[in-house]
Amino acid sequence: MANVGIFFGSDTGNTEKVAVMIASRLGLEAQDIAGLSHDIFDAYDLLILGTPTANYGEMQPDWDYFVPELEEADLTGKKVALFGLGDQIDYPDSYLDAMGDLADLVMQAGGELIGQWPAEGYQFNDSRAFRDGRFIGLALDEDRQPELTEDRVATWLASLGL
Ligand SMILES: Cc1cc2nc3c(=O)[nH]c(=O)nc-3n(C[C@H](O)[C@H](O)[C@H](O)COP(=O)(O)O)c2cc1C
User: Fold this and answer.
1) Which of 11, 21, 133, 153 is spaced 20 to 30 Å from 143 by Cα?
2) Is the CB of 135 under 6 A from ligand 1?
3) Which of 87, 101, 148, when mutated, tests ligand 1's pocket best, judged by the most ligand atoms within 8 Å of its CB?
4) DSSP labels for 25-78?
5) Flavodoxin-like domain spans which residues (predicted)?
6) Which atom of ligand 1 is nearest to the CA of 8?
7) How far apart are CA 84 and CA 98, in angstroms?
8) Mean pLDDT of the 37-62 span
9) pLDDT digits (tens, 9 = 90+) for 117-148
10) What pLDDT sits at residue 83?
11) 156 and 116 in contact (C-beta within 8 Å)?
12) Is the distance from the beta carbon of residue 149 to the nearest atom of ligand 1 less than 6 Å?
């Protein structure tokens, strides 16, 4: 298995919970992005990055604080899989927007995005994470579809070969 690093930012614990779920399936530890610097990524070939969307389309504060680190990072040669959490019913016009913003930063840093996810089974109007008919990473909704999270995670990890 590739050397996998799992990182998350989380305000109310949902993204952390999923990061821990992913990590425990892989026998790894999930790391909170808060307070880290970009050289933490050097040790890994595959990064799994998780973010919720905060405050009507904004990045989660710890990821927001990490943006200058991502702008300095060189992710060339690394594969990066994203998972995003949001609420498609209360925020249908900005569902998972922050995952889209994170995707842009990863691509600017030279990372290769993997783990795109089909959009069937979701209700939303608009999302910056929705590109070419698919989500740019795994789309989760712990507010409206918590019962689907475990299966979605398992299917997604299998699609990544993990
Ligand atoms: C004030 C507020 C604004 C939010 N804005 C969005 C949004 O624009 N898009 C979205 O998909 N989810 C939005 N959400 C939902 C959160 O992303 C969702 O509850 C997520 O699971 C929280 O993850 P966390 O517990 O890791 O912080 C918002 C939640 C709150 C409380």
Assistant:
1) 133
2) no
3) 87
4) HHT--EEE-TT--GGGGGG-SEEEEEEEEETTTEEPHHHHHHHHHHHH---TT-
5) 4-161
6) 26
7) 8
8) 98
9) 999 999 999 999 999 999 999 999 999 999 99
10) 99
11) no
12) no
Which of 12, 91, 99 most suits a substitution to test ligand 1, by most atoms within 8 Å of the C-beta? 91
Q: Where are the domains of the chain?
A: 4-159
Determine the topology of domain 4-159 in CATH: Rossmann fold (3.40.50)
pLDDT, tens digit, for every residue of 4-29?
999 999 999 999 999 999 999 999 99
Round the average pLDDT of the chain to a whole number and report it: 98
pLDDT at 94 > cutoff 80: yes
Ligand 1 within 6 A of 11 CB? Answer: yes
Please report the pLDDT score of residue 2 as a whole number. 85
